[in-house]
């Protein structure tokens, strides 16, 4: 998979959610994670992040939206249930993206939404846990960015072997 992504939240308040987002981001090979205006106790984050992800990828902790600093060309993608939001299964993920989710008991602020190049939503009847939503977005990005065989028409998995990866595809960069 080419490109990179980061993921984070505005106003996250529960350390276990932040820990779960960090651990899942690390598992999906995120390039970085972040929080904006977080309200959590850092020690408790480690209870959910047993992989100690901040030791393996950068974690940016910004106080305000104005403090956000992203690499050139990286676009912000908001994850929010709005009428105008693009359904996640129909969304083409940018090559370079930072996904931002709202707080556990609220929505992305209008100021955060204004920073977003795109706003996407997970098609469901109501909101799920913040860390679950983050995992769904990262999983969808992984699927849609390619490198997997197409799904078969009938139930089950592909039966043909995956072609060998080119050398440049098998190199994984670690922070």
UniProtKB/TrEMBL annotation:
The keyword Methyltransferase applies. Residues 150-175 are annotated as: Disordered. One of its GO terms (molecular function) is methyltransferase activity. InterPro entries: Alpha/beta_knot_MTases, rRNA_Methyltransferase, SpoU_MeTrfase, tRNA_m1G_MTases_N. It comes from the Bacteria. Signal peptide: none annotated. Keywords: Methyltransferase, Transferase. This is RNA methyltransferase. Pfam families: SpoU_methylase. SUPFAM superfamilies: alpha/beta knot. GO terms for biological process: methylation. Residues 10-139 form the tRNA/rRNA methyltransferase SpoU type domain. Coiled coil: none annotated.
